[in-house]
Design a protein that fits this description.
Layout (H helix, E strand, L loop, with lengths): L2 H13 L10 H11 L4 H19 L5 H16 L13 H16 L6 E7 L4 H12 L8 E8 L1 H8 L18 E4 L13 H6 L3 E8 L3 E3 L2 H4 L7 H10 L4 E4 L4 E4 L5 E10 L22 E4 L51 E3 L4 E3 L1 H6 L8 E2 H114 L4 H14 L21 H8 L26
Parallel strand pairs: 1-9, 5-6
Antiparallel strand pairs: 1-8, 2-4, 3-7, 4-8, 6-7, 10-11, 10-12
Length: 566
């Protein structure tokens, strides 16, 4: 029997049905499997195939369905008393998944915008991922322990890969706790401190919470400071080192995290859409927790290859003047609340009287304690006959008012259009002015740069000319030294002939000739400008305030509906 069949028999026992009840009734089998046991249509089809195989075996005398049911339930009850064996995927009730997801999101929110689960989607177990998961289990260190349901925030790209049943080898939702590994957390985990952005920003960008069945195996305990040192190594290097040391994962107790370095060591089970409210209502009492409007939490299984339900997105609210908003009367309500019958001042007292002068409903306590009397008050039944004509006149005037108010609405729209036009004109004007200023600044920068380069090149050329004269003199001295060497050597050796004497005297004539001194002028460098141009520019570019004048559209000074009473 498959793991799916074991899970089905467990849930079937809880639902109160027996396998014998489903015999020969495919419709009831599908109904119970989907509605009572919570399996996806694809899983139900697989279960029906296995059930039909069992029934065919029963007809051939191989096994009775009753025996299959009893054996299955008995085996399941034995497993429930001990740890769940590795490789058999656990079943989780929807309420459990929601509870654990909300607990994780509560811890993830911290003191920021509160997050909550909006929809839970159970993922199918693709055959390829399941086989890879069990293949990895076969090579883990014994005893392998239990499969744990752990949580991870995943990006839309990773979610798309998960829903398509791809391998988790190229997950892009890295975690700052250990970027080279795959980090997941228990529901008590402190994942917020390791997110690259604020959790609420990730939720609004489409990131979701994914629950994984993780084969933790033999786990090595490290501190946060120790595991951060692994960022200098690749995932493969970390896996090989960890495995050779006799471990399958790393646990970080301070944040309740588990780090694995093999993608086949985890398999996705549930996707939880995260709801992040745009606005939070702050209560009057600062000690109270802010109230957040949350959507109803739902649970939806998904077929293999299908995408999950639409993610919850906040409805955008357009800010502006709604056309004809005031001309749409509300639908009359036939329900009168009990609060409308009670006195606003004295709770629990029903109103019985009417003060025509103040147009106010009163109770008996108002009449007795607040200075009213029968002379200036009427019973409600009498007052309604007196006040109804006035109310009807007000209704007629109000209906006329709501029809005529369209002209005022048009004025508001014209005024808003005037603001938009002026804003556009000023922005265009500002753009042109700054365009000219930037052009002037660029021209000035080029001119000043040219001055610096030209002056510097002049001084540089002067130095080069002087250096050339010095080098020419040195070369002449070296040449005379060379010319005098041979005659002097012959003279010292006593070999004096006419040619040697002429050569020696010729060198002597050149040496004691009148040498021209090489003048080296002082050089200069550019150190500034003849005026403080940059401070002048900064002073001219100081911030200024926009000036305003009345708009072109003449709006009414006020809208006073008190005249409707006349």
């Amino acid at each position: 029997m498959s793991d799916l069949w074991w899970a089905f028999t467990d849930r079937l026992a809880v639902s109160g049905y027996k396998l014998e009840d489903l015999r020969g009734n495919d419709g009831l089998f599908r109904l119970v499997a989907e509605e009572f046991c919570g399996f996806t249509p694809q899983q139900v089809s697989e279960l029906q195939k296995q059930w039909q195989s069992i029934c065919r075996g029963a007809k051939n005398g191989m096994m009775q369905p009753e025996c299959v049911s009893q054996t299955t339930v008995r085996t399941s009850s034995q497993n429930n008393g001990t740890s769940t064996p590795q490789g058999i995927f656990c079943t989780y009730p929807t309420s459990t998944v929601l509870s654990r997801a909300n607990k994780f999101l509560y811890n993830l929110s911290g003191n920021g915008v509160p997050l909550a689960s909006a929809m839970v989607t159970e993922l199918p177990l693709p055959r390829k991922l399941t086989q890879a998961f069990r293949g990895r289990l076969a090579f883990m260190h014994k005893p392998t322990g239990e499969v744990e349901l752990l949580w991870k925030i995943c990006s839309p790209t990773t979610l798309a890969s998960i829903k398509e049943g791809r391998s988790l080898e190229n997950m892009d939702g890295w975690d700052a706790l250990c970027p080279c590994g795959i980090v997941s957390y228990s529901e008590d985990g402190a994942a917020a401190q390791f997110c690259e952005k604020k959790p609420v920003e990730l939720a609004r960008q489409g990131w979701c919470l994914v629950a994984f069945d993780v084969a933790v195996g033999k786990s090595r305990c490290l501190q946060e400071e120790e595991i951060r040192l692994l960022q200098h190594f690749s995932m493969e290097e970390c896996f090989n080192t960890l495995y050779s040391d006799g471990y399958d994962s790393i646990s970080v107790a301070s944040c309740n995290a588990c780090v694995i370095f093999h993608p086949d060591q985890m398999i996705p089970r549930f996707v939880v859409n995260i709801y992040a409210p745009n606005k939070i209502r702050q209560p009057n009492d600062p000690k109270m927790t802010p109230e957040v409007d949350l959507p109803a939490m739902t649970f939806s299984p998904v077929k293999k290859g299908e995408k999950s339900g639409k993610e919850l997105q906040p409805t955008p609210t357009k800010v502006g003047i709604k056309p004809n908003a005031s001309t749409t009367p509300q639908k009359p309500s036939s329900v009168i609340s009990l609060d409308a019958m009670n006195c606003q001042k004295h709770s629990g007292k029903e109103v019985e009287f009417w003060c025509p002068e103040e147009k106010r409903l009163l109770c008996s306590h108002c009449l007795f304690y607040d200075g009213y009397s029968n002379s200036n008050c009427l019973l409600v039944a009498e007052a309604v006959r007196m006040e109804t004509p006035g109310l009807e006149r007000w209704i007629q005037n109000a209906e006329t008012f709501t029809k005529e108010i369209d002209s005022v609405n048009n004025l508001f729209r014209s005024a808003e259009k005037d603001i938009d036009t002026c804003e556009k004109e000023r922005k265009e004007e500002l753009f042109e002015h700054f365009k000219r200023v930037r052009a002037k600044l660029n021209e000035l920068e080029e001119e000043l740069t040219s001055q610096i380069e030209n002056r510097s090149e002049e001084q540089r050329q002067s130095l080069r000319n002087s250096l050339a004269d010095v080098q020419a003199t040195v070369e002449k001295v070296n040449r005379l030294i060379g010319e005098a060497a041979t005659p002097l050597l012959n003279y010292r050796a006593g070999n004096i002939d006419h040619r040697t004497a002429v050569a020696l005297l010729k060198v002597t004539q050149s040496v004691f000739d009148n040498w021209r001194a090489v003048n080296i002028p002082m050089y200069s460098v550019v150190i500034g400008w003849d005026r403080d141009i940059f401070n002048e520019l900064e002073g001219a570019l100081q911030s200024t305030l926009a000036t305003e004048s009345e708009g072109q559209v003449e709006l009414p000074e006020a809208i006073d509906v008190n005249y409707l009473k006349n």
